[in-house]
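User: Run a structure prediction on this.
Assistant: Running it now.
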Amino acid sequence: MASLRERRRADGTRAFAVLWCDPETGRQTSLTYDDEREAIVAKQLIEAAGGYAAEAARIADAIRKPGPTVAQVVAEHIDLLTAVGTDTRAHYRQQMRAHIVPTLGAFPVAALTYRQVAGWVADMSKKGLAPKTIANVHGLFSASMSTAVRLGYRPDNPCAGVLLPKSQSTRDDMTVLTREEFMFLLSKIPAHYQPLVLTLVATGLRWGEATALTTGDVDLVSQPATIKVTKAWKRDQDRHWYVGPPKTKRARRTVSLPDDLVDVLLPLVAGKAPSELLFTNTVGAQLQSPRFWTTTWTPALEAARNPKLPDGSPDRDAPRLSKRPRVHDLRHTHASWMIAAGTDLFVLQRRLGHESITTTTETYAHLLPDQQRAAADAAGRALGGLMSPRAPRPGASSSDE
């Protein structure tokens, strides 16, 4: 839409003009720069802004004044965060490098407009990024722009009002197993890892929480027996593993255990020091998710979904699992079973370690048909008789009956 032309002044110096057509007036408009790089940036920004004169003037003003770029401000925002761990900070930097810097990073932060941010979001969607990923990246970017406002780099947040792609319903993202399906899958898991898998489905713990448990976190004597969740595996900025605090403040919690799980955990606790890991790999070291997925979970899924005869040919008569759950779906399965048993969502929130009841409600509300039926029945009891033909009319006296 815009073009860039080099011009020679009378004194021999070069100038670079950005020309475009204003969509409101239809007139050709131009801005002139001494620096070719500034002109190129202005051309890109004006095109992203749709060529509107008011925004073009703001762009021109921002480019001529020294100020930080988008990449510099996002990096500064990440550095200024005071309530995140090194793993989260490293993740934010990775998001910045992958999704912000290539598209918006070189632009002056003061020149950024709503249209550019909306276009950037639309481009991420066209590239096939999941709505949740887009929301996470936009959240980081919007927070960075709020920091830019606080630091006086620009007067407003250009992310305000930008609509994000809607995620598919959570129920499409999770796979919930019935008890029969879970037990069938469990039978394909090697015996060494069955206690871990049983614990995940019986407690709803996250993988990083469960695999960071030590025997000192387990109290199998109390009534009921409990597990204290006080830590989880994390990665530092160099992607090295370390044990740190759980995901959120609410994630620090005590989870009660069913009696059947106590019997499973007793042999694992016996003879171990309180600081030793409760669940380990076959050589006694930390369990890492990618390796567990590759060497244990995926082969078990394959065996459950595609049973074979001893000669390796398909066993068409054998029972099979039609679903393809992730390890994290054991957490969703736990929540589903708890809801089916009548557990209140507030109690489930505390058990799962969700920071907000909203997270629990939005994630699992679709699993509550029985509670909806109970609510309808309760409303029916409250309205009992009010809808009958003999019910008194509003304002009618007893003599009217």
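Residues 308 and 314 are 4 Å apart (CA to CA).
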